[in-house]
Amino acid sequence: MIWDRLNTHKMVASIKEPKQIEIALSLRNQLSGVFLLTGHIGVIQGYVNLFRSHQVPVFLHLEKIGGLCSDYHGLDYLHKVIKPTGIITTKTNVVKTAMKMGLFTIQRFFLMDTEGLDNIAKSLAQIEPDIIEVMPARIPEMIGEIKNITALPIISGGLLAEREHTLACLKHGAAAVSTSRTELWRDTYAIDENKIRIIV
């Protein structure tokens, strides 16, 4: 389901606090999915169930969820009990384990300097997640450089403040953009003859 939504919806809601959940649900028909970066082991099941009941792909950022261990047993519990659409992690070894279990994986990379490109290439040489997320989104021209390394879909996020930042990422080849800025979740994007525009 996430692949279909990525083709038609270009915005991923990064949820950093519980009050954003209701907003994301109200805009669910124009989001490709949600990234949960809030909660703990005691409440995360309810969050996941809520999004699943509305057919919204939901991904858990493992390093942001309190009490959720990313070792084999933690991932096994996540896969069999919590049942998100998939996970987000910065750790290559976690991607490897999660993929063996059949979990959909998104690996997050940070581009701090040119060595960041080498790190992406080295990591992807070991294991390829389903999607990669690249941060920060304010260097959209680097998306093209990453596309020279891999054919995997790229989601770009971090430091987005306005529509133009989102458009720049999409124009440089990002499959979608992730942000916690709820005002940007409301925008709908269309691609016509390889041109991207905002539908107001």
Characterize the structure shown.
With 200 residues, the chain is α/β, with parallel strands linked by helices. The radius of gyration is 16 Å and the shape is globular. The chain has an 8-stranded parallel barrel, surrounded by 5 helices. It has a two-stranded antiparallel ribbon with strand order 9-10. It has 9 helices and 10 strands. It has a single domain (2-199), classed as TIM Barrel. Helices cover 38% and strands 24% of the residues. Helix 8 (163-171) links the parallel strand 7 and strand 8. The protein has helices at 2-8, 19-26, 44-53, 72-82, 92-100, 115-126, 141-147, 163-171, 182-185, and strands spanning 11-15, 33-36, 58-61, 86-89, 104-110, 131-135, 154-157, 176-179, 188-192, 195-199. The mean pLDDT is 92.
Tags for this model:
single chain; 200 residues; alpha/beta; TIM Barrel; eight-stranded parallel barrel; two-stranded antiparallel sheet; 10 strands; 38% helix; globular
Number of domains: 1
How much of the sequence lies in strands comes to 15-25%
| Sheet having the most strands | 8 strands, parallel, barrel
Which shape, going by the Cα principal axes? globular
Q: Which consecutive residue ranges, at least 5 long each, have pLDDT under 50?
A: none
CATH architecture title = Alpha-Beta Barrel
CATH level-4 homologous superfamily: Aldolase class I
Fraction of residues in helix: 25-40%
- What is the number of helices? 9
The N- and C-terminal alpha carbons lie at a distance of 25 Å
Could you state the order of secondary-structure elements as H and E?
HEHEHEHEHEHEHEHEHEE
